[in-house]
Amino acid sequence: MKEVVIDVCTLPAPEPMQQIIKALAQLPAEQYLKVIHRRQPFPLFEQLLKSGWDYQCNELSNELFHIYIFKKANKATFSALNTQFSLNKKTIS
Amino acid sequence: MNLVGASFDSLPPIDLPFRFFISAILFPIAIAVFILLSGEEPWSSRWHPAMLTITHGFTLGFIGCVMMGALLQILPVVGGISFPKIRFVASYSHIFHMIGTLSLMLAFILPITFFTLNAAIFLSLGFVLYSSTALWAIFNTKSKSATISGIRLALLMLIVTVIIGVLMQLRTLGINILGLEKIFTDIHAIGGLFGWVSLLIIAVSFQVIPMFYVAPNFPTWLSNYLPSSIALVLLLLMITPFINNLTEELVGLLLILQCLYSVNLLIVLHRRKRKIPDTTINYWRLAAFSFILLSCLYFFPKQYLHHRIYQELIAPKQELLFAAVFIYFYLVSILQGMLLKILPFLTYTHLQQRCLMNFSAMQFLPNMHKILTKKHGRFLFVFHCLTGISLISTILHPKFYWLFAGLLFVEFSFLLAISLKVIRRYQTCMAKIIKQSETDN
User: Fold this and answer.
1) Domain count along chain B
2) pLDDT score, position A90
3) How many CB atoms lie within 10 A of CB B172?
């Protein structure tokens, strides 16, 4: 699975969501999106699940989150890569 | 925190916060008409029945409604939590709040038992339903953010304020649980304005200022300790009049804590990364500077104020002036600025979320900055400042009441017009998005 990365840390609300939707619209099958964000976009999470997507959110600090978004159908493939992300993240709970 | 596919309750349907916002805007318009009809007399004292109608129209009507509507939407955004049974809670607490507030406003000027009883019943029903549901949602979240802790404290303060307010209303019906001391009126006012409204604004701003303006976070020591310090001082203010008279010292401490917030707010806004001109920032700045100025006046040694103008003009109206500056220049400024920011934000966010289910509908998304134009925002801000100046003038010289009433009417009618335009825009775009989705399916 290839990774597409977008950094929305310096964008005011609601531009991060706008960029994420644009990136998802162009995301080829078998790829996943990595979003670098300064907060957890809770409303996005809910809509992703409703729209056939899944996600993983890793908190690296109070102001830095890595969000991985992938098609639900690709969950197994993504889970195999998951160990790799876990090495770089600070897991609080 | 590692969130893997966790499920969150949905954002509330957009009509729920919007009904609170539109109702809120209608109150100052009604107050403007009432001021115009009441003449100069209400401006003689803060205890004048008509003045109590005016202040409660602002605090419960405008400020209360905006806060209640905003919190419905803010909880899911900042904490990933939502009110349970949100349509039921929002609809009924809105209706109860409307009936209760209007009854209370009428009860001050028409001392009829029916209005007093109505106000006590419906206001307590509305606030109890709303605050208990919000507290239930907050106590059930795992989030330990400063914003969530601050909102929790603000809701607890709201409950205390409502209990005292209802007991005060019952006093007029002959049910005298509180006694006749006027101190309860002050505790009620301070608890409501500093505990519920200002504390909630502070807690929410810890998240929304960095989110909307790409500003740095507030210092951790401030966000962690300021809300609990304010709550503690308020609690002492409520207890000490019955033990030891430290009221003046505690009010001073409360003002210092609020000033600390105002100074940090100005610093955080100054350090924002994208320095794009934005009228809503001017509202925050106006509020912060007004509060700092208000505190300076409060702390200014009274022995140096011998001038005739101060003694004859300002001193007799000092309490009313301080309350007016705090309510109008601090609270109303922030809430009006917040409305200008969240009306287009909510509209855009709700439309945008539909596009996640159907990317081809993105073509119908409006430009967010055109949902509510900057020109309209600037115009409203100028009017807000002019109305505020006319309010001060009216307190000092009541003969200007017509000017304040006129400006207030124009300011909020304009806000109503642009809010309705935003709703119309939402409906038009949503209809196109739904049509596109049906075509694609």
Assistant:
1) 1
2) 45
3) 16
DSSP structure class, residue A28: P
At residue B417, φ and ψ (nearest 5 deg) are: -60, -45
Position B139 scores a pLDDT of 84
With respect to residue B365, please indicate whether it lies within any of the assigned structural domains: yes
> Which chain B residue has its CA at the smallest distance from A71's CA?
B5
In the Cβ-directed half-sphere of B433, how many Cα atoms lie within 13 Å? 23
Which residues have C-beta within 8 Å of that of residue B33, sequence separation ≥ 6?
A: B405, B409
For B3-29, give one letter per residue: b (16+ CB within 10 A) or e.
beebebbebbebebbbbbbbbbbbbbb
Taking only residues 239 to 278 of chain B, the set having a beta carbon closer than 8 angstroms to any beta carbon of chain A reads: 273-274
CB neighbourhood size of B314 (10 A)? 15
Flag whether B250 is in a domain: no
A5 at B interface, C-beta within 8 A? no
Q: Is the CB of B352 inside 8 Å of chain A's CB atoms? A: yes
Residue B6, pLDDT score:
45
- Looking at CA atoms only, how far is residue A67 from chain B in angstroms? 9
Report if residue B402 sits inside a domain: yes
Domain ranges in chain A are 2-86
Query: How many Å apart are CA B151 and CA B430, to the nearest integer?
Result: 32
A58 contact residues in B (CB cutoff 8 A): 2
Q: Which of A11, A46, A67, A83 to mutate to test the interface with B (most CBs of B within 10 A)?
A: A46
CB-CB under 8 Å, A59 with B357: no
Stated pTM of the model:
0.90
Domain A2-86: which CATH number of 3.30.450.20, 2.40.128.20, 2.40.50.180, 3.30.110.40: 3.30.110.40
pLDDT at A83: 60
**Is B2 in Cβ contact with A56 (below 8 Å)?**
yes
What is the helix (H) or strand (E) element at residue A66, kind and residue range?
strand A64-71
- Spatial CB neighbours of B130, under 8 Å, sequence gap ≥ 6: B68, B89, B93, B97
> Token pair 């009006």 is at which residue?
B336
**pLDDT for B92-138, tens place per residue?**
999 999 999 999 999 999 978 899 899 989 999 999 999 999 999 88
Q: Say if B335 falls within a structural domain.
A: yes
Residues 6+ apart with CB under 8 A from B205: B218, B265
Give the closest-approach CA distance of B357 to chain A in angstroms.
5
Cβ–Cβ below 8 Å for A14 and B5 = no
Domain limits for position B312: 277-433
The interface residues of chain A toward chain B in range 21-80, judged by CB-CB distance below 8 A, are 21-22, 24-25, 38-40, 42-43, 45-51, 53-59, 62-63
Residue B372's pLDDT band, with cuts at 50, 70 and 90, is confident
